[in-house]
Amino acid sequence: MNNILDDFIFENYVVVGVSSGPDSMCLLHILKEKTDKIIVCHINHNVRKESITEENYLRDYCQKNNLIFESMTIKEYKENNFENEARKIRYSFYEKILNKYNSKYLFLAHHGDDLIETVLMKIIRGSNIEGYAGIKEKSKVKDYEIIRPLLKYTKEDIINYNNSHNITYFIDNSNEDLSYTRNRIRNKVLPLLKEEDKNIHKKFFKYSKTLEEYNNYIKNIVISNIDNVYKNNRINLTEFKKIDKFIQKNMLYYILIDVYDNKNDIIKENHILNIINLIDNSKPNQEINMPNGIMIIKEYNFLYIKKIQEKDKDYKIKFENVLKINNLEFKKVTSEDSDSNGICRLNSNNIKFPLYFRNRKNGDYIILKNSHFHKKIKEIFIEKKLPKSKRKKYPLLVDSEDNIIWIPNIKKSKFCLKKEENYDIIIKCNEREENYE
Question: Prior bond to 191 cis, omega within 30?
């Protein structure tokens, strides 16, 4: 094991996560033989009385060996899932220390047994190809790289190394707690696998590497298609449905991992399958809730990924010369050649001032141009396939008596005049690209 880092060039400080257990103490010893530019990063999880003893030992160890020691203690846990919350806190602290010392490398002591446990857990819970690959030997995260040099070795190899080098380490008895899935796999399943093949970790390592290669290939396909399908938190379903189902699922993983800021433990296989079912459903307007306040909304040919917000509030805004509402801009102009639904020409003698833009209310109707019939605004929105999420807040031009004069870019009322008619007001609607957040 002494030669596992022979190819690594130590130029600047590296950060190593050290718990004081046999794995991390082994890794620390190997690193110390290669360089003295080491930041020992320790997290006291504050769940065992032995934690303070272990932290004090590490602090003294670093002082004796002229190594920088950085530690933190987790004061309280706020989530129900202890393992996930502890992991998030750990990596947040690692990143803080990496930034503090301008380091680009984080060394962690995951080993071959950890890899087997992780792969089995992913299979039990469901994941994608990247998840099923388990733990990567090297992985790029943000602006730093995580390196796990012990991944080819077993726990037994590590214990033997520690004993032969007289390395002091501490045993965490909580690893025997069978209330955790990982511990049940570690203590019940793993021994059976090793009875079948003592080198089973090598086969899992090869399996992991193979899936990693497949995943890189698939990711390249996803990246090459993503711009045609996804932009500003909106998926174009017309383009999306042209893609192979397998790539669709991986594309959804890729998009959601970005939405959840690379926290890939949040997205499970059932989330992806629910979204696929939503897309395939014949109903044009549907939505599903995702973890952490994210909502997936299907509206006709588009799928929107949004943060759940408070219900849209009613509004009524006085219009004078210029006004912006959502992605629409309204402006009085002196001349205009177009006679489209984006232009509203009015005769000030036919309407009551002031003018307002407001959102739709239940029962709203418009008397259409060249017609005496009342048409409900809701029906017009449905006919025009206006996304359901936009219907409540879409602006309507009304006069002071609340007569609906114009549905911008959609319909004109009897008050709107043609280019050849007598008018003294022109209002133009310009639509800007919308960011669907």
Answer: no
Q: Which residues pair with 140 in a beta bridge?
A: 145
Task: Please name which of 400, 301, 407, 299 lies closest in space to residue 344, comparing C-alpha atoms.
Answer: 407
pLDDT digits (tens, 9 = 90+) for 330-362: 999 999 999 999 999 999 999 999 999 999 999
User: Order of strands across the sheet with 396-398?
Assistant: 316-319, 355-358, 396-398, 404-407, 411-412
DSSP state of 160: H
Does pLDDT of 25 surpass 90?
A: yes
Same domain, 31 and 167: yes
pLDDT above 90 coverage of the chain, percent: 74
Nearest to 407 by CA among 381, 387, 373, 425: 381
pTM: 0.70
- pLDDT (tens digit, 9 = 90+) per residue, 259-279? 887 665 688 888 999 999 999
Evaluate whether residue 18 is within a structural domain. yes
The phi, psi pair for 294, rounded to 5°, reads -105, 140
**Res. 292 pLDDT band, cuts 50 70 90:** confident
Is residue 216 one of the residues assigned to a domain?
no
User: Where does 100-255 show beta strands of DSSP type E?
Assistant: 105-107, 138-141, 144-147, 230-231, 234-236
**Distance, CA of 129 to CA of 68 (rounded, Å):** 38
Question: Which range of residues forms the domain containing residue 23?
Answer: 14-208
- Cα–Cα distance, 125 to 111 (Å, whole number): 21
